[in-house]
Amino acid sequence: MGIPSRYEAFWAAAERAQVALDRHRFLEAFAFGGSEHLAATLAELVLTGAKRATASLAWVYEFEKRPQPRCGDLSIVTSWAGEPLCIIETTAVDVLPFDAVPEDFARAEGEGDGTLASWRVLHTEFFAGECARIDRVPSATMPVVCERFRVVFPPEAR
């Protein structure tokens, strides 16, 4: 998949600033969360450095027939309206049962109060909505894609 034309100027600016930025590693452009408010909140956490991980359901990738993130992938994080905010590089991916997601991953996600208990409450609700959308039943063993990332552009987050 190529970089969507609406993001070419943003990507070109990143290429001028980043010698190691490789457009062949582009995965997707996306907004975090399932609402405008959540997208803005989570993007702000990324831009301030508090959020360096994200979780998604493996079932969603299967349902949408799109690849799961892999180490080295580059993605454009956007606002809910699709405005580009930053480029992230996937640094690690683990697929784990929901009930096996570790505390350090919950902290890296930077949401809620940073505890695993808070992570589970927030993600139980979010994943229940995702499961309803794709006609699956949430469970403690549903496969969660635990993706860690770093911001590569702009080089210094706020």
Provide a brief overview of the structure.
The protein has 158 residues and is of the alpha+beta class. Helices cover 35% and strands 25% of the residues. The chain has a 5-stranded mixed beta sheet.
Ordered list of secondary-structure elements with their pairings:
Elements: H1 8-17, E1 26-30, H2 36-47, E2 53-57, H3 58-64, E3 74-78, E4 84-97, H4 103-109, H5 116-134, E5 143-153
Parallel strand pairs: 1-3
Antiparallel strand pairs: 2-5, 3-4, 4-5
Q: Give the overall pLDDT as a whole number.
A: 93
Shape verdict: globular
Strand content: 25-35%
| Biggest β-sheet strands, sense, barrel | 5 strands, mixed
Q: In angstroms, what separates the terminal alpha carbons? A: 30 Å
**What is the ordering of alpha helices and beta strands?**
HEHEHEEHHE
- The counted number of beta strands is 5
Helix content: 25-40%
Low-confidence stretches: none
* CATH-derived architecture: Roll
Contiguous helical run count: 5
The radius of gyration is 15 Å
Write up this protein.
This protein has 158 residues and is α+β, with helices and mostly antiparallel strands. It has a single domain, classed as Sulfate adenylyltransferase (Roll), CATH 3.10.400. It is 35% helix and 25% strand. The protein has five helices and five strands; from the N terminus they run αβαβαββααβ. Strands 1-3-4-5-2 form a five-stranded mixed beta sheet. The longest helix is centred in the C-terminal third of the chain and has 19 residues, at 116-134. It is globular, with a radius of gyration of 15 Å.
